[in-house]
Design brief:
The protein is built from one helix and nine strands; from the N terminus they run αβββββββββ. By secondary structure, it is mainly beta.
Length: 177
């Protein structure tokens, strides 16, 4: 938790100093989250609706950073006659590379870290709580409606050691200042 607090304070300082410069944006996305995990005697594959809130700063047309909060929803699955659910969320920090295709369309790729927490629940009983810091990757496209509003579609993949696969496909918007 201390790492998250220090990272958030650092980002707050960075974004507050950049708040009056071009390149700052705030946004939100909603989308499809898929979680898969298989171990002997345990097979979990489920999806749910998740969301994320983010702030980004572009240093140039090609480079930027993005920080945000992600809620992976509460995917649930049935196994051995029991209902299992994973409730996970996290904070992420990415370096972002942008490729402007035109005045209205950009492609982007991002790489960074996700600091996550997850609760595993079986039939309403909490059976495990875990957390960690792992690799996060993403790519997407942004459509710029005007200089202050853009829409984006993207996919994020999280290399979380506790699961076989976690990814999110989302659509959202961003407001630029």
């Amino acid at each position: 938790m201390k790492k998250i607090t220090v990272a958030l304070l650092g980002l707050a300082v960075l974004f507050s100093s950049a708040a009056y410069a071009d390149g700052l944006s705030l946004g939100a996305s909603i989308g499809y989250v898929n979680v898969e995990d298989s171990e002997p005697g345990f097979d979990f594959e489920a999806n749910d609706t998740g969301y994320k809130l983010f702030a980004s700063y572009e240093f140039s047309n090609h480079l930027g950073i993005e920080a945000g909060y992600i809620d992976f929803g509460e995917p649930n699955d049935q196994f051995q006659g029991l209902s299992g659910e994973i409730d996970a969320s996290g904070w992420n920090l990415y370096g972002v590379g942008n490729l402007p295709l035109s005045d209205g369309v950009d492609l982007f790729a991002k790489a960074g870290i996700v600091s996550w927490d997850a609760d595993s629940v079986i039939d309403g009983i909490l059976v495990d709580t875990s957390d960690g810091n792992d690799l996060a990757l993403g790519f997407g496209a942004r459509w710029n409606v005007n200089e202050n509003l853009g829409f984006r579609a993207e996919a994020d993949w999280f290399d979380i050691d506790e699961a076989d696969s976690i990814w999110m496909a989302s659509i959202g918007f961003e407001l630029r200042f």
